[in-house]
Amino acid sequence: MKLLVTGGAGFIGGNFAHMMVNSHPEDETVVLDALTYAGNLETLSPIMDRPNFRFVKGDITDRDFIDDLFAKEHFDIVVNFAAESHVDRSIEDPGIFLKTNILGVQTLMDACRKYGIQRYHQVSTDEVYGDLPLDRPDLLFHEDTPIHTSSPYSASKASADLLVNAYHRTFGLPVTISRCSNNYGPYHFPEKLIPLVISRALADESIPVYGEGANVRDWLYVTDHCSAIDLIIRNGRDGEVYNIGGHNEVSNLEVVKTILRVLNKPESLIHFVKDRPGHDLRYAMDPTKIETELGWKPEYRFESGIRKTIEWYLSNRDWWEHIVSGEYQNYYAKMYKDRQ
Ligand code: NAD
Ligand code: TYD
Predict the structure, then answer these.
(1) Which among 33, 84, 127, 191 is annotated as catalytic?
(2) Pick the CATH number of 2-189+220-247+279-301 from 3.40.50.720, 3.20.20.150, 1.25.40.20, 3.40.350.10
(3) Known catalytic residue: 127?
(4) What is 115-182 written as a DSSP string?
(5) 254-281: per-residue pLDDT in tens?
């Protein structure tokens, strides 16, 4: 089989490409990525020279390019990770989120229709369901929970999900959608909470916690997300949505304190800063469907996954020190200057 993995130079797509190349040597994996600020070829260097792997630079919103690529390659499966993915950036500048996350999906699906495909898989997010109250631990997101978005990022992802369902219903395109909770692990860009805290704590820099740090996320180690997608693209039912999560709800403050404890850094580094506008309170997934239908089980709990992640950042300093010493400095100064 020939797989197209879009956004494969990013965090989750990169981990997924590693998994495909290593655990499915019989398949050919092609990564397509525009190499935006979030894409990094160093993430792919461990697999770059493997015979069952290729990298192509390109933009999923570029119709002529996508058409040529599909005409040449005849992919069997497309897994779309390519996206603008950071909520705070979507609040600063929504336009690029709508372009990549919605029109890019349309462009990919049009090529799938034209050249034929066994499966188009859309990597979506729990954020399309909006948020849950902090004082109702009994409530979880199910696949039929109504879509109810808060940020331009989540609205763009929800729009894409609706479009994917429309292409299935109207054109009979074979599709699946997965909605996963927050991921963490190797190759995570340090604008997101966990790698930001690890990199700043190691430099003894202040850790910005939005509001009171009470917001809750349902953290999943990235390879557990990747193994879920692997099951869905091979055995998932056409037209279905699958929620992915491992029942690892942790408040932001507890995430930060855990990292500081493991790194033996003082809690005095914590700085409570102005809250994110529209900040979702709590995400929590019910993964019963993927567990019972496809036999998926996560390998890591938060306690083991966070230690493995910290170890990775300690032994792969080159990967993230390049990032935080470059343009990222300007990003940090701009995004955090009004929060103090
Ligand atoms: P990321 O920002 O690390 O990576 C995104 C990748 O897409 C980058 O390599 C970037 O260069 C590429 N890209 C951006 N625009 C492109 C375009 N127009 N054409 C081609 N490539 C383009 O994101 P991530 O955290 O790895 O997320 C991947 C997917 O998973 C996204 O669709 C996101 O919505 C979804 N998701 C993420 C999480 C999470 O916790 N990170 C959770 C659930 C779902
Ligand atoms: P983030 O990693 O941006 O993921 P998402 O917004 O998609 O859940 O943020 C995770 C949580 O951490 C979220 O509640 C916002 C909070 N947060 C901070 O408190 N400080 C920060 O500097 C960042 C980036 C996030």
Answers:
(1) 127
(2) 3.40.50.720
(3) yes
(4) H--SEEEEEEEGGGG----TT-TT--B-TTSPP---SHHHHHHHHHHHHHHHHHHHH---EEEEEE--
(5) 999 999 999 999 999 999 999 999 999 9
